[in-house]
Amino acid sequence: MTESLPRRMTKRWETFWFQDVPPDLFALLRIVFGALGLVSVLELTPVSMLWAIDGIAPVPGSGLGVRSFLLDHGLGALSGWAYFLGSVAVFSSMTLGFMTRFAVWACFIANAFLQSWNHLPLSGANQVLTSVLFCLVWADCSGGPSVDTWLRERRGVQTDSTAQPIWPLRLLRFQVCLIYFNSGISKFVYPVWRDGAAVHYAINLNIFHRFPWPLPPSLDWTTTVGTYVTLFWEITFPVMMLNRFTRRFALLLGIALHVGMWSSLELGPFSFFMIASYLSFLDPVKFCERYSLRARALLKSTPPISLTSINS
Predict the structure, then answer these.
(1) Do residues 198 and 187 lie in contact, with contact meaning Cβ atoms separated by under 8 Å?
(2) Fewer CB within 10 Å of terminal CB in the chain, N or C?
(3) Domain residue spans in the chain?
């Protein structure tokens, strides 16, 4: 008997959001973004300048009132060091997979609050990391390789064999698409992007350019092309994610553009965070089949995941 249209749509909706997938891709995202978050925290030095309340920081009164309270009680330097060392600790714990659920939540809270604590040294990478961590807090990212997995193995507990719903991964993909689409629409509002001159001005401004050498006039056409390609790519990025072939093209173009931006402009670690977010577009089942199971066999760690049981 043929199923009704509402029932078929309901099944597709449930499959789209709640399909069980191996946990390995979530573990990879935990490791990559934990390491990137740790590096970004360590880059915010010296601590006395960028973390202490009485250093280069916003006017007292921000930080949800916490900064003002600590400053009034003479705890400016101590609280700055505590925030810095605490962030280093939780991002290290997230990368290593130790107390993973707590570590991911702690990283999300610490990174989100940093915008109110002192936004001056931050770049767009901080907002990207906060968005990614928000998606990861809803997933079990404790899969191997991780300290949690190793400890469970030592106790003889079966590890890493439990599939989990795909919806946190879907949420992360939507977030990446939203970042690009919002960026593209915001750029389109400004005439300098619509007339093709934005990249030319960016690479010639002292604020942004990495190297103090102006582009020869004969190559100005490349900046015009770069401006329009960037604008088109960001606005159409969500649409290109709907098809397998256009998705590959968009992701490869994104890697090329971000590498180009990093090599020519001073934008902080933003490019690295965005390229790392492309890992969320990998197929979690195929990733497990092609890479994770081979790594498990080489390392002789945990038993392979039964994909048959996952898809049943």
Answers:
(1) yes
(2) N
(3) 20-161, 166-281
